[in-house]
Task: structure prediction
Amino acid sequence: MVVCNFERMEDKIKTFSGFGDTGKGGITRFSLSPEALAARLEFKKRMEVIGATVVTDDMANMYATIPGTEDLPAILSGSHLDSVRQGGNYDGVLGVLTAMEAVETIVSEHIPHRHPIAVVVWTNEEGARFEPAMMSSGVICGKFNKDDMLASVAKDMPEAYTFGEALEASGFKGEEANRLSTEKYLALVELHIEQGPVLEAEGYDIGIVEGVCGMINYEFTFSGQAGHAGTTPMKYRKDALYAAVKAIQYLHDELDQLDSKLVYTTGKMSCHPNIHTIIPDEVKFTLDARHQDPEVIKQVLTIINNIPPMIEKCMVSYAEAWSRKTVSFTPELVDFVEKSAKEFGYSIKRMYSGPGHDAQFVIDVLPTTMIFVPSIGGHSHSEIEFTPTENCLKGANVLLKTLLYIDQK
Result:
């Protein structure tokens, strides 16, 4: 059985980890920054060396394609090259590198294939420099308005600098005609690190990703009365922070009784006036809850709606900030991934992704699935993010075999 090459895989990981190297084991490689543009040029050079044709669309998404023996739509694989601030060397980029390695193996081993096979690099997946995340795949898949996205302002510049300006200056702005479409592409397979601890902790080689979890994000506001910390007796206080703490405890107690796969986070909080001698008069916090089953999300909403309108003499209000529905990937492609992994003798776990990915937008346009490889310690969006090359290579092998199954089908 043909397999991908360990040394080539290791070289790709090492080379791309140099673009935006923080010197602490990770990278800062914001979308369309000089570091990201250098990584794109390296991608383009390597793909052209193996005979791929590289084009970009109007959102600077890159498509590097090797021809097939027949005039058919291309099979697509890839991810993104941009990172968060002080991120790791595997999030996103590994999906690009394993796709490059799979295609290079097809070329070097002269593996016959009917369809063209393309490696995609999505622009601004992280949204770390220009919000929102998954910007460019969102535009071409009809999720975001292009003009709104072009007006998004960089968060790392002292003066206003828009995504549109960065796009024009990048040298990677192409034609709208080069966009992903059903006429030109057949399917997408995106490989990614798990970004969580499950695969490593439970001893699995490969995650068979069935979809992306639905989620809700709510913001809660608690309105009390400011007062002097030294003169206001406890029984007269309207302490918004204390009310918020009571609500957080209620949410945790109730949500813990739901399905064990539910994950939820109270991750953002503001306290006004945030002075140690003043009783807080307004506190806000967010609740992020994720689960693959819409019925469980409905149960979460019931718990939220049961919060009383007043806690500890403070008014309580809440509103949805944003949400997404559960996305299910194409069952036939999911089965191809499982079949491929089993052929290599790899241990597998079917699972849903908690984080979002470009693939969740592409599924509305093309048949799509994903492959996960383990993240050591579950670390991601961190300089200590790590996946051994052995695991990366296993993922590349499964990706290679899956692409060939799609080609045969």
About this structure: The chain has a mean pLDDT of 97. The radius of gyration is 23 Å. Residues 134 and 309 are 36 Å apart (CA to CA). The domain at 6-212+328-408 is CATH 3.40.630.10 (Aminopeptidase).
